[in-house]
């Protein structure tokens, strides 16, 4: 069990809600185990934070919110159905019943109101159950010392069975790497099949039989595209990269290593392996120094890396669409964090998307018929009194008026529901 899992298991309700637990002079994130220490000042965008306040900054920048993290946990942990998870996500964004119905394509506004009632009833029942279990603690002498059911997050190795010709592969690589395969990539917003093609090309930049720190992986992937965090996650999801649970070490996936070993080469013919910084002897010397550093220094270096990573994670709100290239029909929605839209693709792959019209045609036409595209990135307003949720709702409204994705044109019903 991961350290963050055990913290979530033993944390109180209040600790879970705020997203961290206090352990002596340290504060640990229940989502990932990241730790801040009392007495250390943490700089962030020109502002200095103490340990507690910086933990809140970390949660917002890396996880979005505790709500979002908890909602992604497996249904065996939360007890929520896919429909309930989708509804809670929409409610959290402050959407009205008609807007929720329009986004999910289920029932009517009255159906959504009924779902709200069911969720409130579930909340009342949960309170009674928690009270019963608290009262039982002092009476049940045969209860286990602790509940140790593992916390499972919705993270799976992506399964793929793509039929890719060499001609198609070259076409895709030329499209997304216009300066050549060793150059930067134009975008990482593309259909899943194309993602797999570009990822199998990117992985060639890693050396076989070598371990990389997270910082080294980030440095290498930054040369590919600014979305290096997302690319790194996809490389791991596809098994092209493997890593330690704490993210301190990365290396080529076993299938990639075996393929290269079978070919008797560490790189593709005619291609040069990129060095992260300096000569190979300098890198080896640096790794040797890291190996002789004491544990305290390693923990400090790891903490700095996590802080740097948290600073680099930028979230952008906006509107996106899932478009069927065969018939032109679209599904559109908004999100406070556009980096999460790949979750829509994952739900479609698993057959659990909440818009059943979209899911039905995804199953009928196949994944290759659809593309997920960002329609608009919401401009940030420096006004401290600006209502970002309202601005995002108005942005979505404009796109509904422009595209009218109803009936034969989309997956949102026959007409625009009134508020």
In DSSP terms (H or I, runs of 4 or more residues), the helix count works out at 18
User: How much helix is in the residues?
Assistant: 40-55%
Distance between the termini: 46 Å
Q: What proportion strand? A: 5-15%
Shape: globular
- Pairing-aware structural class of the strands and helices? mainly alpha
What's the mean pLDDT score? 78
- Which consecutive residue ranges, at least 5 long each, have pLDDT under 50? 147-156, 265-281
Report on the structure:
- A three-stranded antiparallel beta sheet has the order 1-2-3.
- It is mainly alpha-helical and 419 residues long.
- The chain is globular and about 70 Å long.
- A hairpin with a 6-residue loop joins β6 (241-243) and β7.
- It has 18 helices and ten strands.
Q: Top keywords for this entry?
A:
419 residues, mainly alpha, 3-stranded antiparallel beta sheet, 18 helices, 10 strands, 48% helix, globular
List the helices and strands and how they pair.
Elements: H1 3-10, H2 13-18, E1 20-23, E2 26-29, E3 35-37, E4 42-44, E5 47-49, H3 51-63, H4 66-71, H5 75-78, H6 82-92, H7 97-104, H8 109-137, H9 166-176, H10 192-202, H11 214-222, H12 228-237, E6 241-243, E7 250-252, H13 254-263, H14 280-292, H15 295-312, E8 318-324, E9 330-335, H16 342-350, H17 356-365, E10 370-377, H18 388-403
Antiparallel strand pairs: 1-2, 2-3, 4-5, 6-7, 8-9, 8-10
């Amino acid at each position: 069990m991961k350290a963050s899992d055990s913290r979530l298991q033993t944390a109180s309700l209040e600790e879970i809600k705020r997203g961290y637990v206090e352990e002596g002079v340290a504060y640990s994130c229940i989502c990932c185990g990241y730790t801040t220490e009392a007495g250390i000042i943490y700089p962030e965008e020109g502002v200095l934070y103490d340990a507690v306040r910086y933990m809140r900054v970390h949660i917002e920048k890396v996880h979005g919110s505790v709500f979002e993290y908890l909602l992604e946990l497996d249904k065996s942990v939360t007890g929520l159905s896919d429909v309930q998870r989708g509804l809670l996500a929409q409610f959290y964004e402050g959407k009205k019943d008609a807007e929720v119905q329009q986004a999910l394509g289920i029932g009517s506004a009255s159906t959504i109101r009924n779902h709200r009632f069911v969720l409130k009833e579930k909340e009342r029942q949960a309170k009674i159950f928690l009270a019963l279990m608290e009262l039982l603690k002092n009476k049940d002498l045969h209860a286990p010392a602790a509940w140790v059911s593992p916390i499972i997050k919705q993270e799976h190795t992506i399964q793929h069975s793509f039929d890719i010709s060499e001609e198609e592969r070259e076409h895709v690589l030329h499209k997304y790497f216009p300066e050549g395969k060793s150059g930067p990539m134009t975008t990482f917003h593309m259909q899943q099949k194309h993602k797999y093609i570009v990822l199998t090309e990117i992985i060639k930049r890693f050396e076989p039989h070598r371990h990389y720190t997270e910082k080294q992986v980030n440095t290498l992937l930054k040369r590919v595209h600014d979305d290096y965090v997302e690319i790194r996650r996809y490389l791991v999801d596809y098994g092209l990269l493997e890593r330690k649970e704490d993210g301190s070490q990365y290396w080529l996936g076993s299938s990639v290593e075996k393929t290269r070993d079978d070919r008797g080469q560490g790189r593709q013919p005619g291609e040069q392996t990129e060095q992260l910084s300096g000569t190979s002897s300098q890198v080896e010397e640096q790794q040797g120094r890291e190996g002789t550093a004491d544990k305290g220094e390693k923990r400090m270096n790891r903490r700095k890396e996590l802080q740097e990573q948290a600073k680099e994670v930028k979230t952008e709100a906006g509107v996106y669409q899932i478009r069927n290239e065969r018939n032109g029909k679209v599904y559109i929605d908004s999100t406070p964090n556009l980096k999460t839209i790949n979750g829509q693709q994952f739900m479609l792959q698993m057959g659990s998307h909440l818009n059943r019209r979209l899911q039905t045609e995804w199953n009928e036409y196949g994944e290759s018929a659809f593309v997920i595209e960002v329609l608009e990135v919401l401009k940030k307003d420096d006004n401290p009194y600006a209502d970002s949720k309202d601005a995002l709702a108005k942005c979505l409204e404009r796109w509904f008026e422009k595209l009218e994705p109803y009936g034969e044109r989309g997956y949102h019903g026959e007409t625009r529901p009134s508020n």
